[in-house]
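Good morning C.,

I know you're traveling, so I'll keep this short. The sequence:
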Amino acid sequence: MKLRCKDGDIAVITWDHPECLENIGRLVQVRGPLKIEDEVAYWRIQPVTPQLYAFRELDDTLARDRVTWSSRIQHPDRWMIPIEPDEELKDTDEVVMLEMPAPACTPEVASP
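The tokens, ready to paste straight into the viewer:
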């Protein structure tokens, strides 16, 4: 089974249950251990922002709540895409300073 995410990734939710479609586009942190059930891989997740998150409880009722690691919410690996830094930024510990060009003209200051 090829996985998209790994423990510690920040990922974008790309799909969810029909009653939870409001989660699509949300950023979540992914945490293991990976759980495989009926050939579907699930990760524990926690949204990066504190907004309410829609999810189904164990009894299949819909809930909206702030999700923390203690909530133990899981999401299918195939419904998330990890956000990865550009290849040139991976494993970089060097600080890069960007130079900005001087403005083409300076604004005039009105005299009192």
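Safe travels,
E.
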